[in-house]
Amino acid sequence: xxxxxxxxxx
Amino acid sequence: xxxxxxxxxxxxxxxxxxxxxxxxxxxxxxxxxxxxxxxxxxxxxxxxxxxxxxxxxxxxxxxxxxxxxxxxxxxxxxxxxxxxxxxxxxxxxxxxxxxxxxxxxxxxxxxxxxxxxxxxxxxxxxxxxxxxxxxxxxxxxxxxxxxxxxxxxxxxxxxxxxxxxxxxxxxxxxxxxxxxxxxxxxxxxxxxxxxxxxxxxxxxxxxxxxxx
Lengths: 10, 212
Fold this sequence. Notes:
A: elongated, B: 212 residues, two-stranded antiparallel sheet, 2 strands
């Protein structure tokens, strides 16, 4: 799980 | 970060704070579904496990911690501190009918079959339906306090603004996440009926009450 864009969203 | 994303986050934050303050100031959680609040605590817990694995920004980390902290504080107020005011007789939605299918779907439809990814997917699916016990409770009692409707409005607007955020991201960043988008559309649709009542009744100064 390394998608930075997705981890950026709340 | 675009304007839809930021206002969406702030609307979400406003919803969470409105609910906490409502319960705290009135010393009562009457009319609030504890089940929905437990589901939201579960949503944030399973989604923000990435707090332990990746750092994005100070904004990102603080908001995640605030959301999780407030979710557990709300559950604590409902089930411990102000338990005597909790309206359990009307909070009868069977949450296993949400959690079990959503868990199964997260195993079947995800981006990557890894524990963190499945938990993230579970949280996205669960969030989309987590408000159902609350809406069910309102339909059962036939009314909602005005402050509760403000909470629901902010909570619904948040995901609707995220939809615009995803449209923005698709056009300007070429990014889209089908799981989040489909779940976000479902989530927003669930609020449409409520939005209609909010605009036609609450904003005109009337209490939200449903016809018997």
